[in-house]
Amino acid sequence: MTITKKNRELIDDSHNVVRYLKPKFLIRDDFDINIIGIHSQAFELRPNEEFLSLNWLEYFELPNKKDALNLIINDLKASNLPVGSKGALAIANISKIKSIGKDRKTKIRVEYRPNNLNKSHSGVFNIQNEDLEMLDLLSREAFSEIVPIDKLASNPT
Q1: Nearest 5°: CA angle at 48, between 141 and 90?
Q2: Are residues 155 and 70 in contact, defined by beta-carbon separation less than 8 angstroms?
Q3: What is the pTM for the complete model shown?
Q4: Residue 51: domain span
């Protein structure tokens, strides 16, 4: 099935989005080896940001998730985002993100927002920085699948 890919179009709720997380946003075990969680600050908007930047996993229409994640890393690097081997990719289903917003009385939307260097770029709109519980729920429940960069094939340590 071909996916419609028009700028500013809403992404289907059944799809997934991926956010790159710098090491400072990752919670590690006592041995500093395994990632066991994400700090909620990873989902705060910076001043003057209109939306939370991330990437659309299904954009590439690949059957293998690992291949799509590697292409997302390539997109991030092409747009000059420093992707370090100690960072990670966090994956969330869009319907889960929207459900958290709905429970917090916030209408969240996820749009496809490509640019010349990052073809799978997307955005989550209406994240509320002052709603600390929303940020916590996003970090614990929505973005619950975490893939360390150093575990992906084209990004060896």
Answers
A1: 25
A2: yes
A3: 0.91
A4: 16-151
